[in-house]
Protein: Long-chain acyl-CoA synthetase
Organism: Microbacterium amylolyticum
Amino acid sequence: MTTENDGFVFAPPRPWVSSYADGVPHDLAPISGSLMDLVADSAAEHPDAPALEFFGRVTTYAELIDAIERAANGLRQRGVKKGDTVAIVLPNCSQHIIAFYAVLRLGAIVVEHNPLYTPRELRKQFEDHGARHAIVWSKVASTIQDFPDDLVVENLIAVDVTKGMPAAMQVALKLPFRKLVDLRDQLTEDVVGGVSWEAVVSSEPLGSDVASPDTDDIAVIQYTSGTTGTPKGASLTHRNLLANAMQARAWIPQVTRGEGTVFYAVLPMFHAYGLTLCLTFAMSQAARLVLFPKFDPDMVLKATKKRPATVLPLVPPIADRLMRRAQEKGMSIAGTGIGVSGAMALDDALVTPWEQLTGGILVEGYGLSECSPVLMVNPVSDKRRAGSIGLPVPGTEVRVVDPEEPTRDVGVGQPGELLVRGPQVFSGYYGRPEETEQVFVDGWFRTGDVVEMDDEGFFTVVDRIKELIITGGFNVAPTEVEMALRQHPAIADAAVVGLPSPDGEEVVAAVVLDGSPAFDPEEVRGFVKQVLTPYKAPRRLFIVDELPKSMIGKVLRRQVKEQLLARDAS
């Protein structure tokens, strides 16, 4: 017997469903409509509920849907139409949410960008998607304006994020005090040319004659390095992103809709993780979304004192820094309900103190930009398991296969590449049919991650296929070695890579010391050999001041490898 869900056929066995928390459905209801329905339904059912909070300024759902309709009309008057790509280059702010949904309201396609990218990085992405409309933070407007003639953005809309703050704060930022002047300079910049965001949202609301997008229209192009290291735009449809929001709702049935439910947006919403958990899931819950332009532990602690988060999407370094800062300042993070961690392994040594201090739950999840992004999460119950990425969310089908022969499944407890299917899995890379074909096999998406599944359906990530180290004929997972190194009292952080050697590759580690003046590489190697089999111990260790990390704190092993190769060459 099989069950069908939006065109995907799921064949038992699915051992993971028996490990679901109580109240979580095994499958997903059919998907229809568009992402606009998430906000429209919340506004219709909870018009007076707080939707956004930005430095204390609150926007209700009725005000939010009105601003979206006005912005959509303003964009249409400036030439944005169905199917156009519209670049959004903004930090977390109320204007970001309004712009996101206004673009979608017209049936156009949002292309999210990191506003801290270098001009070269931004230019490469604009070359790929070719957007002629851009809604950008005033601080980066000049970067876009300086693009070469073949990348001219015809319609540049500049956003002053301070205009989304309370009126009193806007007035204060104009005072001639050095501290306030410096803060204003960090937040905004005068823009010559283009159109102001205020001019766009001052339009009349969009008429009902403009149809909403279709379920299978592309909604967002999300840039990812994918499995090859080359940045590519993952085309995510309304169906993909709606499905992921619905899967999140199904996974945490204890989170109620409407006023009283609070989400913290400390992760950047231009990242797939922050986009789904905050821009779509939170809006579908008619929740209050508290916006932080960047992660600042003091700001989060202040917000927690006033109104703790019901749901706090984070990464392990954020949880660690928040706990440390709370203890330093003698403040409490009690009342924080559900912490959802992703992007990197969550250590049990972090989970226990977090849950003791908050009285809540901290669970690890897993996903990829190509999958909208959530694929697996630990049960939000006593069934959760530290060290595991959890279980496939409802409506998701998975296989573990031989990476060299991806049509052959491996057994329970055996490592293999994770293949997935489901309504949240993308339709392909934007404008790259050949690269799209390479990551699918018989309709299954190849994640490029090596995992193991136990007999109760819990999954553990072994490592990235591209980052496995082959030394003396043996495979070494960098993550496993890094976790062993971090247990050493003299090491604060570590990144493990493979460098060329006569035997193929040798295991090499870059380590950040924990303030200890004494460091003996041989002693560290011996320490690792007590935890792991000897061939996994690093042959060489390099001391570094810091490790290169992504915008959400994930160590960039490729950059570490390049730095160590350059060190060897010199």
Remarks:
- The CA atoms of residues 229 and 366 lie 19 Å apart.
- Residues 468-569 form a domain with the GMP Synthetase; Chain A, domain 3 fold (CATH 3.30.300.30).
- The two ends are 63 Å apart (CA to CA).
- The longest helix spans residues 61-77.
